[in-house]
Automatic annotation (TrEMBL):
Primary localisation category: membrane
Lineage of the organism: Bacteria, Pseudomonadati, Pseudomonadota, Alphaproteobacteria, Sphingomonadales
CC annotations in GO: membrane
Region (Disordered): 52-72, 113-151, 196-219
Record keywords: Membrane, Transmembrane, Transmembrane helix
Domain TonB C-terminal as annotated: residue spans: 125-219
Amino acid composition bias (Pro residues), ranges on this chain: 61-72
Pfam families, A to Z: TonB_C
NCBIfam families documented for this protein: tonB_Cterm
Protein name as annotated: Outer membrane transport energization protein TonB
InterPro entries: TonB/TolA_C, TonB_C
Organism, as annotated: Novosphingobium kunmingense
Gene3D superfamilies for the chain: 3.30.1150.10
């Protein structure tokens, strides 16, 4: 007999023994009055099926969304100038010493003989006649007379070689422009002069200065 046949024969024998024992227990239970309760308990255990309702599994809540972190600030790389030019080299040239200044002595100026003295003494222009008659009370302008303006007008005239007045300038005002202009107008028109002369006695242009007092006559 093979090993497998022997094993099956042994299992059958054990099964028969178990079944025989169960019949003996059941028969004993019926005899003792416990068969009903025992059978009831056995049936309850056999027929009662503890069926548990399979509850759906609760899915865990999704994890909270994390706020996206801002991108890191990346500073641009610092440019380093590797090719640094060397500092310029300045060559200082020492100037040569200044030569001493040799003073130049100018030759003495030649002696110039003084000019010969004039043969005649030069003369300035001089009035002919009485200068007081060139401007008098009858020549008083009506405007200054009405306004009772008085004063002294000083003047200087230029006399030509012919003895006539060529120009007149007021050197001191009387305080009235009309009195001043009247003075020069009268002297230029009425004035007559002896012309000035040089060292040789030749007539030349000259100048003459004087004044006119303007005063309102009292009655």
């Amino acid at each position: 007999m093979a090993y497998a046949d022997r094993e099956q024969s042994g299992n059958r024998t054990v099964a028969f023994v178990v079944v025989a024992l169960i019949h003996l227990v059941v028969g004993y239970a019926l005899v003792t009055g416990l068969a009903y309760e025992g059978v009831k308990q056995i049936m309850k255990k056999v027929t009662t099926v503890d069926i548990k309702k399979e509850e759906p599994k609760k899915e865990p809540p999704p994890p909270p969304k994390k706020a996206a972190a801002p991108p890191p600030i990346v500073a641009p790389p610092v440019k380093i100038n590797v090719n640094v030019s060397p500092p310029p080299i300045t060559t200082v040239t020492t100037p040569p010493p200044v030569a001493p200044v040799v003073p130049i002595i100018a030759p003495p100026a030649p002696v110039v003989a003084p000019p010969p003295p004039p043969r005649m003494q030069p003369k300035s222009a001089s009035p002919k006649g009485n200068p007081g008659s060139w401007a008098n009370a009858n020549d008083y302008p009506s405007g200054p007379l009405r306004r009772e303006e008085e004063g002294v007008t000083r003047f200087r005239v230029t006399v030509g070689a012919d003895g006539r007045v060529t120009s007149c300038d007021v050197t001191g005002s009387s305080g009235s422009s009309e009195l001043d202009s009247t003075t020069c107008s009268l002297i230029t028109r009425r004035g007559r002069f002896n012309a000035a002369t040089d060292g040789d006695g030749n007539p030349v242009a000259g100048a003459w200065s004087s004044s006119v007092r303007w005063q309102i006559p009292k009655d």
